[in-house]
Prior knowledge:
Blueprint: H1 13-51, H2 56-85
Helix pairs in contact: 1-2
Amino acid sequence: xxxxxxxxDDRKDDDLNDEVVPLMKRYSRMSQIGLEFGAPAIIGxxxxxxxxxxxxCTLFGALFGLVIGMVHLFKLSKQSMQENDKP
Length: 87
């Protein structure tokens, strides 16, 4: 990984931004999908523990997170395929 001080003198900050910005967008999308899968199940577990109705909200949260995460993953893969088809 490059640090700003490691750049050769002939490279500019814009070159670094051209490399870093797409990677940061990609990592941001990946972490968002991970949270979409896991967060609803954790919230469901907390509700179950609060009201002592285990495992119903946890199961609902896990299924909800799975559906939401898969829909988002499908949209991102479709968008990625369209970007790769552009000349």
